[in-house]
Amino acid sequence: MDKSVALYLFHDGNYLQSYEFFGAHIEDDHVIFRLWAPNAISVSIVGDFNKWDPKLSPMHLLSQSGGVWEAKLSTDLVSKGTLYKYCIEQIDGELAYKADPYGFYSEVRPNTASIIWPLDYHWHDSKWCSTRESAIGSPAPMNIYEIHLGSWRTHQDGLFLSYRELADELVPYLKNMHYTHVEIMPLMEHPFDGSWGYQITGYFAPTSRYGTPQDLMYLIDQLHQNGISVIFDWVPGHFCKDAHGLYKLDGTNLYEATEHPQWGTMEFNYNRPEVVNFLISNAYYWFKMYHIDGLRIDGVASILYLNYGYDNEWRRNSEGGNTSLEAIAFLRKLNSEIFKYFPYAIMAAEESTAFPQVTWPVDKGGLGFNYKWDMGWMHDTLSYMETDPFVRSHFHDRLTFSMSYAFSENFILPLSHDEVVHGKKSIVDKMFGDYNQKFDEMRLLYAYMYTHSGKKLTFMGNENAPFIEWRYYEELEWFMLENEKHRDFHNFIRDLNQLYVDEPALWQEDHSWDGFQWIEPDNASQSVIIFRRMGKKPEDDLVVIINFCPESYPIYDIGVPKNGTWRLIFNSNADKYGGSGEDIVKKTKANEKEGFHNQPHKITIVLPGLSALIYKREPEKLVPAKTKIEKPKKIDSSKKPLAIKDDKPKPLTKTDPIKKK
């Protein structure tokens, strides 16, 4: 692209491929460097190639560029693998050594230099890419496994697995457990392990903790070839104040607006077109160059609200409200641009308030995301599960309230890493009761989650029911699977994942009342809920019964929508999952003359305490039509026999119709 055009688009906020212009790029016999630093007095390139001397490789301002600096260095001097930084003489005269904001690769922490690195890779996921394009608009299951790569598994000495080693172990694990998507906590370069990747210094550089950019591409490639979608966590709301990062790049607030009052980080300045361009170009980059399938946008509420994190300060916009008009415009532009070029994209907002129309189209007044985390469902449901079952009747609305707004947005139900850190306890430890009862309760929680309307997300390790919180500095406690209770729960999640994928009623109509019907929502006295999940075909309907109380009922009537035989297809209380193994009705015929729960028919079952049961109607058996068989005629031997043709009859093929007499 012509330089003048590239610069115009960049300063206008509309250069989606700005990573092709800025940063360090190998071109024939030289490497070209470009940096936006409009308030810098001077800029030079330093690195191991010139002993980090700022006098040896100066950059020059491009004419009428609006503060864009450029330099060309011979490949005899710099090449693939060369370490470099920008030495910026800031507006106050101080020298700052900065990593490249558009750098593609970085040193392993604690070192902070950028590395010249081309992004060549031969992909093998063309079939996957073609399939996701053709499937746009088609309903599909979404069961997301959220993962922190550094602590999922490690080597025996505690060192990280590489991206390629993770491909060898993670891909078969996800397939065996029947997860459909993996969501990876932020992989953009970050200096501090304890930030989990949410405080970024290199937005275009995948962290070097686990290998090279090509190694990450290989991991994504392998996931795609095995039918698993890839979502990245992305943080466009704030960045850390580390000296080598974006913070006061040229000595002024260039990328930043103000300091976040809670996190000690800097909020992005959405008033600057160049900053908006940087962020949207970054999102585009991960889809284009790394073939990802989606982004989960972190901390959307902190982006939207001017007074987020301010306890006693009311900050207003020009219209008198407390939302950031510039941030809203940024989010709408982000989603519009991404869906224009990547219509299959998952753009999921972690938005923790009741901000309206998050997943509505931009032209309908929405923010333009296609999914939103349902934080309300998560908080209400976990609060309910922490309550003594014998007093849950007083808190029944916490269980059912989510369905009053379930279709106002396209929701994902999350049990994420945020729920198992900072003293909140692990998921199983949140459950009410003694050791054994906690497992019964956790099976109920997940059965309710998987049968509730909405897509699913669960954090790594939850499938093993650990009793300690997640610790980023060591691998998950896989040894707990040697314990029968934990192994049974692990198998429960595997089978529940398989059921979810196999049953269209659990995902085809996730975002409308066409997929959900209450059968009995108000039985607070017994803490029982009953509902129907529906797919596009009537024969896919499921009836879900969940008893959140330890009380068992040997005779329990349930209204069902259709006559016929209803078969139990899933039982959270089964012996193989560590339940009581109580003998319950595997099949039951509906009473065709008597209805119940405002349904035309009813079935009678055994309902164990603390159990979730899922019934499905058996298909009606087709009785073949009877054909009349004619008796052979008697042959009069006195008459001359019929002439017999010489040619033999041809045998029937699969396409030949069989004619009845």
TrEMBL record:
The active site is at D298, E350. GO terms for molecular function: 1,4-alpha-glucan branching enzyme activity; cation binding; hydrolase activity, hydrolyzing O-glycosyl compounds. It comes from the Bacteria. Its EC number is 2.4.1.18. Pfam families: Alpha-amylase, Alpha-amylase_C, CBM_48. It catalyses: Transfers a segment of a (1->4)-alpha-D-glucan chain to a primary hydroxy group in a similar glucan chain. Residues 625-661 are annotated as: Disordered. GO terms for cellular component: cytosol. Pathway: Glycan biosynthesis; glycogen biosynthesis. One of its GO terms (biological process) is glycogen biosynthetic process. Residues 146-500 form the Glycosyl hydrolase family 13 catalytic domain. SUPFAM superfamilies: (Trans)glycosidases, E set domains, Glycosyl hydrolase domain. Keywords: Carbohydrate metabolism, Glycogen biosynthesis, Glycogen metabolism, Glycosyltransferase, Transferase. It is an enzyme of class 2 (transferase). InterPro entries: A-amylase/branching_C (IPR006048), Branching_enzy (IPR037439), GH (IPR017853), GH13_cat_dom (IPR006047), GlgB (IPR006407), GlgB_N_E_set_prok (IPR044143), Glyco_hydro_13_N (IPR004193), Glyco_hydro_b (IPR013780). Residues 625-650 have a biased composition (Basic and acidic residues). Belongs to the glycosyl hydrolase 13 family. GlgB subfamily. Monomer. Catalyzes the formation of the alpha-1,6-glucosidic linkages in glycogen by scission of a 1,4-alpha-linked oligosaccharide from growing alpha-1,4-glucan chains and the subsequent attachment of the oligosaccharide to the alpha-1,6 position. HAMAP family: GlgB. NCBIfam families: branching_enzym, PRK05402.1, PRK12313.1. This is 1,4-alpha-glucan branching enzyme GlgB. The gene is glgB.
